[in-house]
Amino acid sequence: MSISRLALAAAIAAAPAFAIAKTEVQFWHAMGGQLGEITDKFAADFSAGHASCTVTSSYKGNYTETMNSAIAAFRAGEQPHIVQVFEVGTATMMAAEGAIYPVEQLMTETGTPFDRSAYLPAVISYYTTPEGELLSLPFNSSSPVLWYNKTKLDELGIAVPATWDELEAAAAKAKEAGVEAPFSFGWQSWTQIENYSAWHNLPTGTRENGFAGLDTEFTFNNEHVVNHIARIQRMGEQGLFKYGGRRGDSRAMFVNGEAIFWINSSAYYGGFAQDITDWEFAQTMMPLDTAVADAPQNSIIGGATLWVLRGREAAEYKCVAEFLAFLSEAENQAYWHQTTGYVPITTAAYELSREQGFYETSPGTDTAIKQLSLNEPTVNSKGLRYGNFVQIRDVINEELEAAWAGDKTAKEALDTAVERSNALLRKFEAAHAR
To answer: Which residues form the signal peptide (predicted)?
Structure first.
């Protein structure tokens, strides 16, 4: 090789390598803390292993803030490709015709392998059209469970309650033994009305809980739910129940031992595993109200899904589809499930978790899956699809808080909640009438 050719070769070797520009996908989510770290890690791992795509993961606040930010961004033409929306925003997203790109359609049109049967039926049924098309990809799905302080129950000789009568009796015994506020819960509309109703095969509204049309009306002020709320109200008067806030605000009551029974999402597992070190916690199925049903039906999910928004470059949607497929992989879903307590969205991830011995080393962590899969869902237990449901939950919260404060009877609170909520349904129906 001549000197000039040697010099040229050396110059080429020393020159900086120019990376091929990757297609960027914007992903907005509502996961804070440890959950946000794992969510961001999924995006980073996908980007690192993909030659032509990169996903930028951004925390946009709580569920309501994230959904509202995405809606505002869409109106301004600055929307992300993917946005995480909680389950009560489903009807609102469905009504935004032209704004959403149904996930199943996305997968088909981008040629990305997709098998709907691979997903747990109880998880995806909430997010399908009447024709069965999947609209958004379940990401963090959970179900409410009964968390309990196993150490304290063993100490007091209290059996794990399976019914509401047993829970009330156990709370009374714990109160006598000095437990400050034996029972509490969070996300009260979701746990004490929506899931209580599904668990006992009761409708929350007409028209198949809103799945069959916008002209639905609420019926959760029926005698069974009224009696249930009246029971909790009575437990509060006796010092057996203490209200601790609308979302997960009462979590500290359980962690510090103030409450030994707590109904809330299965997704608190990861945080409890980190924060509870002085005693043993466990979870079991939600209690059954034997005055209403002889056996439970099934629970319904909470959490959120990933919605794809239209209006971006066509070529970018292939990367979106591949990222969603990546999140659905058994290894990733099993890791998410085992680390957080959220339900795995695929059968393969559930089976992998079992093969890895997770349910043996961490007993009870499959409780939410068992609840969701207990029976074939009925029209009463498939889920809910109500317009303006974010605002409606605020109404329900206000009325239940009036009941806990003793300002209204259970019937007065629920009757008013239904009346106010139906007005919001009519506003949604009028705005989206065809």
So the answer is: 1-21
For residues 44 and 36, what is the distance between their CA atoms, to the nearest angstrom? 12
The amino acid sitting at 122 is A
The closest of 251, 223, 201, 226 to 379, measured between CA atoms, is 201
Output the CA torsion sign for 152, 157, 161, 164: negative
Q: Residue 270, SS3?
A: helix
Q: Is the pLDDT of residue 1 over 60?
A: no
CB 353 within 8 A of CB 329: no
**Structure tokens of 8?**
């040229």
Nearest to residue 82, comparing CAs of 118, 109, 58, 46?
58
Residue 4 clears pLDDT 90, i.e. is over it: no
Helix or strand (DSSP H, E) at 307 = strand 302-308
- Closest to 324 (Cα-Cα) out of 23, 21, 25: 25
Query: What letter does residue 20 receive in the DSSP assignment?
Result: P
Contacts of residue 353, defined as CB under 8 A and 6 or more positions apart, other chains included, come to 334, 337, 338, 344, 359, 366
Calpha distance 142→413 (Å, rounded): 28
User: Rounded to whole angstroms, how far apart are CA atoms 184 and 318?
Assistant: 46
Q: Which two tokens stand for residue 123?
A: 């998880």
Rounded Cα–Cα distance for residues 103 and 18 (Å): 34
Degrees, nearest 5: CA angle 321-324-328: 135
Q: Which domains does the chain have, with CATH numbers?
A: 23-142+301-361 (3.40.190.10), 144-298+388-431 (3.40.190.10)
Helix axis angle for 33-49 and 316-328, nearest 10°, is: 120
Q: Which amino acid, 157?
A: G
Hey, what are 38's tokens?
A: 């794992």
Which tens digits make up the pLDDT trace of 70-100?
989 999 999 999 999 999 899 889 888 789 9
CA dihedral 6, 8, 14, 16 (to 10 degrees): -160
The predicted model scores a pTM of: 0.90
pLDDT at 101 over 90: yes
